[in-house]
Amino acid sequence: MIFVRTVRGDVAAAQLGACYAHEHLIIGPSFTTHVTPEFELSDVERAVVELNDFRAAGGRALVDSMPCDSGRDVLKLAELSRRADVHIVAPTGLHLAKYYDPGHWGSRYREEELAALFVADLLEGIDAHDYNGPLVHRTPHRAGVIKIATDRHFTAREERVLAAAAEAHRRTGAPILTHTEQGELGLEQVERLRALGVDLGHVCLSHLDRRPDPGYHREILASGVRVEYDSAFRWKPGQGNPTRDLVLALLGEFPDQIMLGMDAARRGYWRSHGGNPGLAFLLTDFSASLRAAGVTAEALHRIFVSTPAATFSFKTTPP
Prior knowledge:
This protein has helices at 31-35, 44-56, 74-84, 111-123, 156-172, 186-195, 214-221, 242-250, 285-292, 297-311; strands at 3-6, 9-12, 19-23, 61-64, 87-89, 91-93, 145-150, 176-180, 203-206, 226-229, 258-260. 34% of the residues lie in helices and 14% in strands. It has a 6-stranded parallel beta sheet with strand order 6-7-8-9-10-11. Helix 2 (44-56) packs across helix 3 (74-84) and helix 4 (111-123) crosses helix 5 (156-172).
């Protein structure tokens, strides 16, 4: 079976449904939220309200992207999945060093130690307390994607994390989701992952629309990698909507490689917290603007359904 691994078990890829490719549904108290309190999204009740709106708009699945020890809470993700009746893919991996305290284990672990941790999250289960020493609170909720990140230049830490993610991918077939800082280093990520034997059809590069250069995107997409755009609601008055423009310019050439997300990692983006535009935005307002510009129902199905299902499925059947 071609499957996507969710927090409540494996789902046939064909049954995933309309999916957002990069979200932050739970960010618990952590160094991340200590530095940026607005990032804290730990209220399950408000998240359920938000996800109910998402589901009412046709949404059925979301890929969470808060990896190891940065506010991830797999028990809350599983509760959200059950209560809102949506599929949620939980990540393993590591974010940028700035989201961790100085001296964090992620900067000390060797490549093989990181790979072993990622594989354990994918095959055995994520620790209930997100404690990544000796795991004594392993849950039955397994990770379904490996999250990695680069800043505007590669550091030794990021090179180790990337290599460990590639090793975990080769051993398990798990997909990889990357963070690009303001869309930078997309080509470099692709080349490193390809050299490490990663199947680019199971790799999603995030935030690329923050560098809205169609030529740059064409060069990246020509590799066969998938991309995720999440700035559709972020552009300021007078800027137009470069995210919309990229979709319109590139979808015809690369119909099976473009996905959308909100990356809504602030309370101010959630209606349930009194913010805007809310998680349903892509399936309501933004989809309406794409349809008005001539994007067909079939093309939208590819963006939201078939491309995420193919990208976030496991390349092989792991043990």
